[in-house]
Design brief:
This protein is mostly beta strands. Helix content is 6%, strand content 42%. The longest helix has 9 residues, at 321-329.
């Protein structure tokens, strides 16, 4: 694996009024200053922790000569590998109060620490579950420890999301969306960005198809889809909103689309899922689902893609020959990354994640560089640029499922090619889980620092 490009360390905790200011990062294996990655692991991967009451599990790391609690999050997972909410109507196997199967444990990369010494102790009432050794190219391995029955909790939070106002703040970005429609982004700002105003115009989701014939084509966009909130959770490491919309064509409701918006400290994900009724499959011709980001006057920015190789789109308000060739080369579901560089200390890496059942579905690159083109909804004129994905056709299964990840950063770095940067940002570190049996003491360990 390529080493992860270093992200500049924060000079100060600029959101101290909103977020609990985290402690300074220790100089230990596996920790990169300014490392905002979140690692996710399934219960089935985590040995003795699987099957335990979720509320009783906690995560420790070795800090300042003691085993200290670190911020973590456990999310119950249900049908379609989505975070489970009873209001969603999606199925869930097993008791949601227990950590089971595909349920997720989230921890910060920055909290992975050195290995606890052999003489480390736990309070008498705490049950050790597992030692996790996590290793990637940034160094290591580094370690965290899963236990049951430790009542201590680290109070630090790394994401603040007010669903009522639609405003999200983290140490790296601010995102404002229409609180009545998650798809309508109003403002995106990023720490260190050298431009003015919002980086983006809005997020765009479009569904289209010929109703009974290819010529009678209908299109639904943010305005028509209008997803409704059907469950939410704002945790210390991830915020999740479960939204659903009923797709209506010609006055006939034909499909229920489930969308989950996941906010992390340094990135955003949109997960989409729908069961496709037989009637819909038979009546809709040449269906297409597109998800894209419209930039706000990002003149001078560049765009590269997984299949573009030497091609580089330059945003100047018109489609030149190189940009048209970039579109022609397109994308596939296995070569799908898009790298946007504002040239003003903000980059966005978009990546598409699809299950195996969708791997044969044709995927097109959405790329528009046109200062006159209007594609509603939008706040500002022009597509400068509009970049994203268009899935064309139905999968062989009766389900449509995909996720778009938007990873934010400041710069690629002179020592990295786009391919190396993408590999580093998307790599999953190795995990080794072993039983763990430290000694117990009658004294509780020190409380976590702030």
């Amino acid at each position: 694996m390529m080493p992860l490009p270093r992200i500049p360390a924060l000079v100060s905790c600029t959101l101290a009024a909103v977020l609990v200011c985290p402690p300074a990062l220790a100089d230990v294996p596996g920790v990169v200053p300014g490392d905002f990655r979140i690692f996710e692991y399934r219960a089935s991967e985590l040995g003795a922790a699987a099957g335990r009451p979720a509320a009783a599990i906690s995560v420790l790391s070795w800090q300042d000569g003691a085993l200290q609690p670190v911020s973590f999050q456990i999310d119950a997972i249900g049908e379609a590998d989505l975070v489970w909410f009873p209001e969603s109507g999606l199925a869930r196997d097993g008791d949601p109060a227990h950590f089971l199967g595909d349920d997720r444990l989230l921890i910060r990369a920055a909290d992975v620490g050195p290995r606890a010494p052999a003489d480390a102790t736990l309070p008498a009432e705490v049950i050790p579950l597992a030692e996790l050794a996590i290793e990637d190219a940034t160094g290591g391995p580094g370690y965290v420890y899963l236990v049951e029955g430790d009542a201590r909790r680290n109070p630090a939070r790394y994401i603040e999301h007010d669903i009522e106002t639609g405003i999200t703040r983290t140490q790296r970005y601010q995102l404002h969306v229409d609180p009545d429609n998650e798809l309508n982004w109003r403002y995106l700002g990023y720490t260190g960005y050298q431009g003015e105003g919002s980086i983006i115009d809005t997020l765009k989701m479009r569904m289209s198809g010929g109703f009974l014939s290819r010529r009678a084509r209908m299109t639904l966009d943010n305005t028509n889809l209008r997803p409704q909130l059907a469950g939410s959770k704002v945790g210390p490491l991830r915020s999740v909103m479960h939204l659903e919309t009923r797709v209506v064509l010609g006055g006939v409701p034909v499909m229920r689309l489930q969308v989950q918006a996941h906010r992390y400290p340094d990135h955003y994900e949109a997960h989409s899922y729908a069961r496709i009724p037989t009637l819909y499959r038979n009546t809709l011709r040449d269906p297409e689902v597109a998800v894209s980001i419209d930039g706000n006057a990002q003149y001078g920015a560049t765009v590269q893609t997984a299949r573009g190789k030497e091609l580089r789109g330059l945003v100047d308000g018109r489609m030149d020959a190189e940009e048209k060739q970039l579109v022609e080369r397109g994308l596939t579901t296995t070569d799908s990354w898009i790298l946007f560089d504002s040239q003003r200390d903000f980059i966005l890496l978009a990546d598409l994640d699809v299950p195996d059942a969708l791997h044969d579905i044709p995927l097109a690159l959405v790329y528009q560089d046109d200062d006159q083109l209007e594609v509603k909804p939008e706040q500002f004129p022009g597509q400068l640029p509009n970049i994203g994905y268009a899935l064309r056709g139905w999968p062989p299964e009766r389900e449509l499922r995909f996720a778009v990840r938007l990873l934010f950063g400041n710069a690629i770095g002179e020592d990295y090619t786009p391919e190396q940067y993408v590999a580093a940002r998307t790599a999953r570190p190795s995990l080794t889980v072993t039983p763990w049996s430290p000694s117990h003491s009658s004294q509780s360990a020190a409380q976590p620092g702030h």
